[in-house]
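Weekly puzzle thread! Below is a chain. First person to post its structure in token form gets bragging rights.
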Amino acid sequence: MLFEPNESFRFSTGLSELAEAMAYAGWIVEGLGVLEVGIEQGEARWITPELLRVKGELLVLQSTPTGWETAKDLLRRALDEARRRRSIQEHQQEVIR
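Winning reply:
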């Protein structure tokens, strides 16, 4: 494992914030790169919907025709993934009861 559990948590949650800060500083491409690392790393799958959402927002900031379409797809994917994870979590809670 690359990080200890607490380090991985802090690393993962900080990625979306770092990418957003980079984008608002004018470094959209670099922010997208940060998000790609987080999405590909895959250690903290629970944050994937958030990373996809932020990536979609950064693509919108780029204001390119393909960026808009890709952003819509990413935002749909983020929402679907969040719903799927919630369903799994609810099922696990029912099994525990």
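Puzzle host: Confirmed. Bonus trivia for everyone else. Residues 39 and 48 are 6 Å apart (CA to CA).
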